[in-house]
Design brief:
Blueprint lengths: L1 H22 L5 H6 L13 H9 L2 E2 L8 H21 L9 H11 L3 H28 L8 H22 L5 H15 L4 H10 L6 H33 L15 E2 H26 L22 H13 L1 H20 L11 H23 L30
Antiparallel strand pairs: 1-2
Helix pairs in contact: 4-6, 4-11, 5-6, 6-7, 6-11, 7-10, 7-13, 8-9, 8-12, 12-13, 12-14
Bound molecules: protoporphyrin IX containing FE.
């Protein structure tokens, strides 16, 4: 009896395999490739199983090592942010009346809602660090030089998309810290002549940060940016396949075939992925993002706790340099984007590129210094401008709602 059942299962399994082969196409493997589980071209003339086996044999450039895992880890964090973001959006309500309560409900009324939220918050911090590490790796290896300029540009745009995700998500909890950090940053942005005023008008949608701003930030966070990121990632990965990883600085005549993607590189990425996910989960459990009192547009809080690394950097820049701190940051971004148009010589060894190496060192050092300086400002109340028309901060954080409600 058991034997006959076993035979039936085996027969069905082989028919299932045949059906699957007949009803699928090797191009479906593109999904696995987009998830980072396959690499290189897929031979769509072959049946799916053979194309899969051939794909597993693809090789990366000979110098691919641990440092090449940084891009993959940034991608993994991006996927984590998408998954946790979708789960949060099942419960989050994007209106000034309901946003604050819905976040309270997520962290205290929904099973493991607190964990999902804090994985999202910590993921948003770590992705900035891993993207900067990845960019630093590409920079050190001079992998931005021809023919990879377009991929460098796609990378710079991706970095801006990552920053824009964080900036628009920052307002969504609609508590005092979120509200006043965004108010302060938009006030500063508005003081940059011409472009500043235009972008603030577009982003804020009202003379002060209000429900209209929340709707705009939410729409950009969950509709505009995901599509942009998806398009840029497709471009980033397609160009990576086209040009391959940049070869070693000094190619050897006896260059071996290259590092197998499977299992070598995939295993390496897996080890780093487990490490990074463990760090993210531990941080989320040990240091949850606290929730302040509900947003009160007429009463700035006494202290402004930040929960995103870039918010610290931006506060430090604007506190010590005024609106020009933000302008400098944007100019730096533009400088990064056009770097491959100026540094085109084939030389890739760092010690032979002293000017570029110096600029890179200044950028990373300035980021760390600004971050540390920003952390020192956490006990300083927000600095609203006269136009905001609010009272000076007088009281510590209280839930007292005076004047216009958000
Ligand atoms: C969401 C952000 C990003 C993701 C998910 C991502 C992902 C990746 C992955 C998986 C690789 C291949 C492995 C590796 O080199 O680490 C790669 C390569 C590359 N990335 Fe990124 N990247 C991102 C942002 C950036 C940024 C900010 C830059 C630079 C401004 C950049 C420039 C490049 C270049 C030029 C390559 C080719 C490297 C080479 O040929 O050696 N990427 N990226």
């Amino acid at each position: 009896m058991a034997n006959r059942a076993w035979e039936a299962v085996k027969e069905w399994a082989s028919r299932f395999r045949a059906d699957l082969k007949a009803s699928t196409d090797a191009s479906l493997l593109g999904v696995l490739r987009f998830l980072g589980l396959l690499y290189g071209p897929i031979d769509t003339n072959l049946p799916i199983d053979q194309a899969f086996r051939r794909s597993l044999r693809n090789r990366l450039s000979r110098n691919a090592g641990w440092r090449h895992a940084a891009g993959g880890i940034t991608y993994l964090l991006f996927i984590l942010l998408v998954v946790t973001g979708v789960l949060l959006s099942f419960y989050y309500r994007p209106s000034a009346e309901e946003a604050y309560q819905s976040v309270q409900h997520i962290v205290s009324g929904v099973r493991i809602g607190w964990l999902i939220r804090d994985l999202h918050v910590w993921g948003a911090n770590l992705i900035v660090i891993t993207a900067l590490v990845h960019m630093g790796r590409v920079f050190l290896d001079a992998s931005y030089k021809p023919p990879r300029e377009t991929n460098w540009l796609a990378g710079v745009l991706l970095l801006f998309v990552v920053l824009a995700f964080g900036a628009t998500g920052y307002l969504l909890p609609w508590d005092q810290w979120a509200y006043w950090t965004v108010t302060e940053a938009l006030d500063m942005l508005g003081r940059i002549p011409v472009l500043g005023g235009l972008s603030v008008g577009l982003l804020r949608g009202d003379p002060v940060v209000s429900g209209a701003t929340l709707s705009r930030f939410f729409a950009v966070h969950v509709i505009v940016l995901p599509w942009l990121a998806f398009g840029l990632l497709m471009l980033h990965f397609a160009l990576l396949r086209k040009h391959g990883l940049a070869p070693p600085e000094t190619p050897r005549a006896d260059a071996s075939e290259g590092v197998p993607f499977f299992p070598n590189h995939l295993l390496r990425s897996f080890v780093v992925a487990v490490l990074v996910l463990t760090v993210t989960a531990t941080a989320a459990i040990l240091w949850p993002r606290e929730i302040a009192d509900p947003a009160n547009p007429s009463l700035p809080p006494g202290t402004l706790l930040t929960s995103w690394i870039v918010a610290d950097v931006s506060r430090a820049l604007t506190h010590y340099m005024g609106p020009w701190g933000l302008a400098l940051f944007l100019l730096l971004g533009l400088g990064l984007a056009v770097l491959p148009l100026f540094d085109r010589a084939p030389e890739r060894r760092l010690r032979r590129r002293p000017v570029v190496a110096g600029l890179g060192a200044v950028f990373y050092l300035a980021f760390v210094v600004a971050w540390l300086a920003g952390r020192q400002l956490r006990n300083m109340p927000p600095q609203p401008t006269v136009e905001s028309g609010v009272q000076a901060p007088t009281a510590p954080d209280t839930a007292a709602t005076r004047g216009r409600t958000p």
